[in-house]
Amino acid sequence: MATLDPHLQSIYEVVLRRNHGEQEFHQAVFEVFESLAPVVRKHPEYADNQVLERLCEPERQVIFRVPWVNDAGEVEINRGFRVEYSSVLGPFKGGLRFHPSVNLGIIKFLGFEQIFKNALTGLPIGGGKGGSDFDPKGRSEREIMAFCQSFMTELYRHIGEYTDVPAGDIGVGGREIGYLFGQYKRITNRYESSVLTGKGLGWGGSRVRKEATGYGTVFFADEMLRARGDSLDGKRVAVSGSGNVAIYAAEKAQELGGTVVACSDSGGFVIDSAGLDVTLLKHVKEVRRERISAYAAQRGSATYVAGGSVWDVDCDVALPCATQNELGEDAAIRLIKNGVTLVAEGANMPATPSAIRALLGAGVLFAPGKAANAGGVATSALEMQQNASRDSWTSEYTEARLGTIMRGIHERCAGAADEFGSPGNYVVGANTSSFVQIADAIIALGVI
Ligand code: GLU
What we know:
The protein is of the alpha/beta class. It has helices at about 5-20, 25-40, 45-50, 50-55, 105-120, 140-155, 175-190, 210-225, 245-255, 280-285, 290-295, 330-335, 355-360, 370, 375-390, 395-420, 425-445; strands at about 60-70, 75-85, 90-100, 125-130, 165, 235-240, 260-265, 270, 300-305, 315-320, 340-345, 365. Helix 12 links the parallel strand 10 (about 315-320) and strand 11 (about 340-345).
């Protein structure tokens, strides 16, 4: 376990006391604090202005009851959350996650990460996150709609295009955003397009938003390789997960010459020696909403392995695109043994702290999620731009903007890693460059 510098440690201890039992939140704060010693040495004004103490306390945390009626006519009660973490750089911005594991600590860790990620995009968006412990798996269309409508019946009073702009995350895709947007529109009698992002293309959505998180992760990985005179061409890529991020990371990795040899879901993983058939994967997951075992059953070159870990598969590049803490130290050691050269996080905090230490220690290139997966929220900000100007951009233009943003993030991370004495360390680069931007804004806006 790493140690912190004494000033940071004392602030971290207050975070532990104040946020009892919120493990993932502690982990996210610790990971940022680990990078900050050289920053607080260089900028004594941050300590003088209690910047860190202020940043560790969300501006607002909303918890609410979500009652709804299931198909059997029974009332079900879920818990809804919206943590409006920081609005120093712009309106709160971040997704909604519907998953049974959701609790306040998870939403706070995601909200905390989001502040830094959003700062890295260079676009004017603050950080927030929300969601519910509702499990959409196995629910009918009507149940999903009823839940979304009830969720929005409370959430609407907290959000707005200048206040807080939610989007999707695990369990919340285009369908859910549609029901949420419809209910917001009905309650407020306003067609306020940029109150939510990730909308459908026919009603205010942006081209490339759906693809953006996965594409952006691969653009970032490609940039890391290019900076070292290498490329994705000919690389074997393993992806974890098979949701929105994983599907589009796989698609772009193959477009750039990689072969995606594996993906997974919570039940097991698929090895596809010929490289994933992304069109089939999309059909199985997005149209039929089935498990990846159904993909393997229809694809001759693929084998489904129930249980086990996708990180056992030999690969040059690993893209964890499932969920937090899915890649632990043992998996990292196996990946290193199998010759992995690059790991880029498509999900939020998928690698544990000890996994990251093992990877960095072995000289593996490692991109933290707040840099590598920022393409999703960046394209959400592009969706807000299109909504504000009542415009709709082409795919080519939007993807080019995404590419420019990801290259900018890479440049900022690499530059800050050099400046703060850890060349090539993207964890330090991402944390320090975004922190300086946020800290300067906190001081500039006064004690609020
Ligand atoms: N949930 C995504 C993330 O983790 C996207 C957020 C957004 O588009 O606002 O960044």
